[in-house]
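In this section we walk through a basic example: taking a raw amino acid sequence and producing a predicted 3D structure, encoded as discrete structure tokens. The instruction is simple. Fold the sequence below.
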Amino acid sequence: MKRFFAHLESCNMENIFNPWFSYDKINDLNKDAFKTRQLQLEQYLCERKDAKYILLAEALGYQGGHFSGIPMTSERILLGKMRHRSITPEHVFSGIKPERTSKPDVKRYGFTEPTATIVWERLIKSGLDTKEFIFWNSFPWHPYDPKKGILSNRTPSDDELEKGIPVLDELINITKVKKVIAIGEKARKQCKKAGIDAPTVRHPANGGAGKFREQIIKVING
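The resulting token sequence is shown next.
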């Protein structure tokens, strides 16, 4: 695990936020927020030592992992505010108490991410064991648009995506996961570059939720 986090710490690119080793001085609750995100990611992974699948998306988003520390997982999920969608904090991890890292005056009930909600809800309502899945990103850090500020998302460049391959390789190494499922075209290309034969499903964003729900179950059952 130490080597894995060392890979995550190595990110030093412009217009990139590293949630596990950086302090968002505008939006973070306190200066130790990044330590909370580290702890939550570590707990999430430790509870998935027998995981079967990695669901690989494109890049970390400001509404999700930027503050939760976990890809495709929002603060509202961790805070128990998505129970009406059948998603509980225990689906993510149960060994420690989940915490928010954003200031309440920035987002009163914590940030929420549409993609996170769709992915978690689909797995849960399909009766699947969420501890068999690890959510990850081709570019594991949060790329943002400097013109819009840190609370924005942008598509990572090809050069940036290259930096994510060693992290993905190490994640596969420490978890022993046998199957990677690419969510969207960027993730598919990343898998190809990494020499991973991964089935691809539609990304839920931009009207793709229905296709994602249909395809993910076919891939898992196939």
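Looking at the output, two observations stand out. The longest helix spans residues 33-46. The longest strand covers residues 53-59. In the next section we compare this with other chains.
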